[in-house]
Design a protein that fits this description.
The structure is a homotrimer. The first copy, chain A, is mainly beta. The first copy, chain A, has 4 helices and 22 strands. In chain A, the strands form 5 sheets. The first copy, chain A, has a 6-stranded mixed sheet, with no helix packed on it. In chain A, strands 1, 2, 3, 5 and 7 form a 5-stranded mixed sheet that branches.
């Protein structure tokens, strides 16, 4: 701690940003903590001098405060922590006669939510969220669902205005897809925007276990005002895996990284059962679309309440350099006495020309 | 199941819609399931061949999946299920010297929420929600409340900008209306929109038990852009009767029925204690009013978050034929492992000229 | 009760308002109940004639109703109840070379939430919410945090777009401020609007215990359309102190008082962990800003859903004279069988020229 540079020192901050910039090519190397790359005392070092759990059962108030701070620091320094598996990865289609063909295999996997916490998940193609599908308005798309689960399932394309028989609701628009069976959806993509796909069968369990993903449709005629340098999908969830962003809890969440002056588009999607008011530090968000439909006029905020099933698209003009906390403002979704957790990530705004 | 027509077959879907159209005169006959009128295997039929509860205690994974699917199918096929009692029915006023006179009797009743689940309710005129009152801006209205409950009560006209002494809050604007007593409100309707009336005394219990209803005020000069062919009030609740739409839980909820090309106005009203993000499949909703006040510009969504006390008016252009799931997207409010429940209904878009 | 004038009698109402007007100079004297200044039977008086807890164990239904009503009446008559301590009080800065200097001392105190209910709180300058800071866009501001708590802490200026090193997040932008230590923030205020300051360390506990306050920034060029006669900050919370408005639960909440014809600006801020849809009786609210940013077009409502971390600014044109209930519409946040509680206050619109 004592080796950590003073954070009010602008030079140190610039140093960090300059060093951090070298890491931008692979965001997972970007560190949240401004002093992570210094010779700072690690929790272990500190413990050797000021034991967090001393031999005597009585801790002074200061020792208790230090012990708590060490847990908080440990979490921040671990960010972004490496875990097994990464969800929400772009899925390239196979082209068959002008049709974009995707295969989604639903099956049970083990999923590491945070370092050392591995849970049972039901996943598409081994990912939570399932692979990210990106198509264009008017594309012909075929999605083959292969069910390797022990339950029947089906896929609903949430937000797409499909013909009724492609809507994916068992017993209303199709039979359930039984274990071991497969089912093929095929349609021309009718409307642009940030949409989702997920199970619509026994969905409390199936979506809560991970059967969900982003389905992004680029418009035929994009608005110039919506042009962005970085396009980031953030799927919120609060199911059986705890509070997660793109399937991971802090410190295993992924930072959003950009360069000062760039515009970042964030596509929030709530696949959970609770609201999550996402708060960005340091800059505001300009809300441009709701459920894939452009808002009649953009509006600004720093805390955006996202309800289950909703998608909100925002633009952030990255004017303010630094590493900025970005989290759900329902505090127990983001922190405990042991440090930050769950729905916390960072927006990292790197200074331009630093490398 | 095996007799159910293939749902990806457009002909079958057209058949369904053609057959379904004959039922549109009485919406309760509209069936949610595309194969309900075929010689499909019923759960009972299926059970005779593949017992859901076999004599041996061990079920294979496939048998378990089938058993679950049968419960889901049973719920869907039962929709819209017949139950005793119907809430939210239009109440015709008695005219007395130009005044529209309504009588609301609050008393305890038995209320069938879903087939076979009957609960104690406190109701206006034996209905949950209470009868729907529709007046016009500027009308003179008299509402006589007759209290046959064991508790005092009072009516607050939620959203109407009445003179203070008509506001219905015991000890602030009036004395409570004691058991066995009656109380008369009288006012000139000041503002248009989708409003509500409900108890404002011991309201957690009284509103949670059913003392609530819709109070719709037509504007003097309706906007042409808001013209609708179907005008539907949907009261959301999550009180002592469980998750309900207009006082009933799925499969006893009522479908919204229209013809392709029509415009449907839906007036959402939340009388519960939780948010309910209502998600419509297949088409978007255009939001035109909040709490009875026109939005400065309409905006589109497919999932609309409705908080307690809020009213949101939307228009749906029924472009997409079929039977569409329409439900709260907090999944446990809409489904369990036993099938769909609570806050689920359907928007049924019939093809025109089919009869 | 029997002495209470009939509330549907306009003369009595006018009398009340005329008498109430004399009290407007000191809002705490304004009474919520329309018959508080009559020789009405008090609950104690009534009890001597109709004991709420009679010697026989059996109460008739009417006696039970009366006993419940008496509890409700008692709460209303007590409003606004006097308690020890008042939060959210304007803090005058010390001027040092053109810099506005504020000192905030975090320490543990006892806080009376409602009459007779005193809880442990962590407070800035002995207040919950902490003192209200009001500055102007472009001001140079210095905030010295003195930590007299047993835990480390830090201040995040929620909504201000500060340089990264002033953002107040331990281990990301600064070290934690240890018990007994102090820390100084200094910045030029970058953006106008209704913002907040609060702890960003162990925040579930620290914010939930009271370490929060309003930080209001007046714009350099205020919009004429946003001019208001009364400017009221309403901080919502649901932490360890229960459901509170500006740190107090009903009947110890503070009424918002104005004169008919005036415009009232209310700045809602949610420092809790739950949504709170605030419902105003008798008049609508015009929403003008979100998180300090002007909405592109104002819009109207009577129930405004405020999520954790959000700020919403509204204008109320006080057209309708009287005392109006103003409360969270999640009913258990506002009432129980024992009467109103928690997140309830009143908007009192006095007739002009009455004194």
């Amino acid at each position: 701690m004592s080796d950590c540079p003073p954070f009010t020192d602008a030079t140190s901050r610039r140093d960090f940003l300059r060093k951090g910039a070298a890491a931008v090519a692979f965001p997972a190397v970007v560190s949240l903590t401004a002093c992570a790359d210094t010779k700072a005392a690690t929790p272990a070092d500190t413990a050797s001098r000021t034991p967090a759990v001393p031999p005597t059962p009585v801790l002074s108030a200061r020792q208790k405060a230090d012990a708590m701070d060490e847990m908080h620091e440990k979490g921040v320094k671990a960010f972004p922590a490496k875990t097994e598996g990464k969800g929400n990865q772009p899925l390239q289609p196979r082209l068959e006669g002008g049709v974009k063909v995707y295969e989604l295999t639903a099956e049970e996997i083990q999923w590491e939510v945070e370092p050392g916490r591995t849970v049972k998940a039901w996943a598409y193609n081994g990912q939570v969220p399932g692979p990210q599908i990106r198509v264009r308005e008017g594309d012909r798309v075929r999605v083959k669902l292969i069910n390797k689960l022990s339950q029947s399932t089906a896929i609903h394309f949430h937000g797409l205005e499909l013909p009724n028989d492609q809507d994916g609701v068992p017993f209303i628009t199709q039979p359930p897809v039984k274990p071991g069976e497969s089912y093929t959806y095929e349609f021309t993509v009718p409307n642009a925007g940030s949409h989702m796909y997920h199970s619509h069968h026994n969905a409390v369990i199936q979506v809560g276990s991970g059967l969900l993903g982003a389905f992004i449709v680029a418009p035929k005629r994009p608005l110039p005002a919506h042009r962005a340098d970085v396009d980031y999908v953030m799927v919120l969830n609060d199911g059986f895996h705890g509070y997660t962003l793109n399937g991971k809890g802090f410190p295993a969440t992924e930072p959003v990284v950009c360069t000062q002056g760039q515009t970042v588009r964030i596509r929030f999607m709530n696949e959970g059962m609770m609201i999550h008011p996402m708060h960005l530090h340091g800059m505001h968000m300009t809300v441009i679309a709701k459920d894939g439909w452009d808002q009649p006029a953009p509006w600004k905020c720093d805390t955006l309440n996202i309800a289950p099933g909703e998608r909100w698209d925002v633009l952030v003009k990255a004017t303010n350099p630094g590493t900025w906390a970005f989290h759900c403002h329902i505090l127990p979704h983001a922190e405990s006495e042991h440090g930050m957790l769950g729905m916390v990530t960072a927006l990292v705004v790197q200074k331009p020309g630093v490398a």
